[in-house]
Design goal:
It holds the Pfam family MoCoBD_1. The protein is built from 19 helices and 28 strands. The protein is of the alpha+beta class and about 775 residues long.
Amino acid sequence: MSRMPKRGSAGITRRGFLIAMTAVGVSFGFPRHLMAAMDPASPDGKVLPSEGDIYEPSLWYSIDTAGKIKVNIMRSEMGQHVGTAIARILADELEASWDDVEIIHVDTDPRWGYMVTGGSWSISQSWPVYRQAGVAGRTALIEAAAKKWGIAAKDCTASNGKIISSKGELSYGELVTMGLTRQFTEEELKTLPLKPNADLKLVGQQVTSLDIANKTNGKTIFGIDAKVDGMVYANPILPPTRYGSKVVKFDDSAAKAVKGYQQTIVLDDASGSVPGWLMVIASSFNAAQKASKLVKVTWDAGKTANVSEADIIAHGKQLLGDQTKGSILDTGNTDTGPVFASANSTIAEEYITSTVLHAQMEPLNALVFKNQDGIWEVHSGCQWQSLTLPVLAAALGEEEANIVIRTYMLGGGFGRRLNGDYTIPAALTSKALGGKPVKMVMIRPQDMLFDSARSASVQQLKMAFDDKKAVTAMEHHATAGWPTQVLAPGFMPKGTNGEPYDPFSIAGADHWYTVGAQKVRAVSNDLAIATFRPGWLRSVGPGWTSWAVESFMDEAAHHAGKDPLQFRLDMLIAEGRNAGSTPVAEGGAARQAAVLKKAAEMIGWGTPQAKDTALGIASTFGQERDMPTWVSCAVQVHVDKSNGIVNVQKLYIAIDAGIIVDPNGAEAQCQGAALWGLSMALYEGTELLNGQYKDSNFDTYTPLRLGQTPDVKIEFIPSKMPPSGLGEPAVTPVAPAIANAIYNAVGVRLRKIPMKPSDVKSALTKA
């Protein structure tokens, strides 16, 4: 497989839908010997029993004799209310009463297909699947009622959990009680007509989120809350390097004085996830923590013990200097050399981003044991179960069929929990103890030290102009540590030169501007990969490639002597490859132009500003060209020249994400994404020092604080297009918009993020 599953194609739809699975047939019910699924509306997370028989119109939901509808959600919940959004898609097409809907976050049984929550894919991928499931059930229910009444199906309608006709009405529960046997072939399913989008009643409207009550009253069960009888606690002792460290010896004699301490073990990890780790076992969390501080360990450190961030940046520049390295993306005409050779003028700039930690609020944790049926149960929050299962299998020496992940609610994911490496030490410890339940909870410094950070990056951009200052060619060369190369190399496509590349470390560089000949080259930074385990972080590639693209576009506009807004609009031409190639991307560059105009209107582009205060603008898309969400950001920024502090006063975002399924959730996600973009622009970033991240807690790693939050406004462009994603795209234009505003305010151009006050002062001194 060269890429992630396409939306609405491979994976969750390939088996089709099975209709009329009743109590006397095959059931999609959960195995009762496992705590295999979770209902976030239930105080203890347990799935409430169904009433009477159930009718399962598809893999994705059931209806019981009381008319209650349980919707199966294979996406992870980490604050985005994904279950509510997906369930309303199905309920709308089914014509169900929202009061009858429950959501069930499922286990990792193979029946669910490929399980991953990331890339802002959940709604876009689920849209066709759950609508098809809903229409299948609605059709079966209408046909059953029509048969009962002895009338034609066309004379019946479905509404609010009932089938209605001139003969009266029958509730869904009553129809289930009567027994349903209707089945559809795959071909028949494809012919079932969906409701016109204009007739959708729940999509786009305000409804009660099905998981919000327990989140606000503290009853939601997160991975950190997982517990089973007889479990012990394991606290890790991490080695001095991410890779290559080996335990030479350890002395736990002092730890034996701690009440509850049991033993310390050195992990033997066939998966390569946690080399050089020790686990301190105790009867309580506190005892494990206390004892671990008393264990003395001698390691043979790995080869990267002296690598610094500066080394990785310098190596990245060296890599980019070798034109034979890397993969060339298919951007149409990539033969830029002759155009640059004949250009009237050219510009070239370099942009850098620092290492960024996830720093999610719930630290990494996992509870693992072997149950009485010989199945390994993994209790933890996880974003990419289908990636984690084979790693667990390799570590445990087991078949994947003998492992199940019960995915809990996530207290923040942001991409960190796509990489499930944190389940491995708990699993290996349990195996060493004969399958005994083992719970590992990392404290903050351990969590940060073990993070799969967003790699530092180097990007070099060039642009060619003719004698009228029109753009004739552009090049974008980018290097960073590639997470997909390390964690999921099978998802890497090949460029036009036959070399594979990480799509999540270059997306965004293949922008929608018409620039003539265009070359995009992606290069893997092997030193970064050898030093730490790069990870996907919210907004992935576009979070840093767009920083370079939109900063550079602003610089190009000034070189051309044009207004930065108009300069961009002139190049957003919806023709050829920039017209869009998928239903979600239909409209292409024209839709990006629309959000750019909207953001400019929101901020009052062109209006006079106070001294050392200015507006900045940027326009991007996320996550990829086949599923773009068009985003533009306009900011108002004041720069204090005396201390270099940048005060973002207004942060306005315009978005076209197609049909908005969940308005409240959509706005909340975009607010959070925009503020994360601000955080990474001005405050958030670490660096590697002696092979490890320099920061280990929030005293030195300082994300955006509440008092630094500007006036934030989010506006969505009304659309009839299929929905795209919203969890990540609003991150992407914020940093360049701020950099562009700083330039307009005080005349200095910053090309590295985060943009610290010291960077501003230094630039002002040199200006």
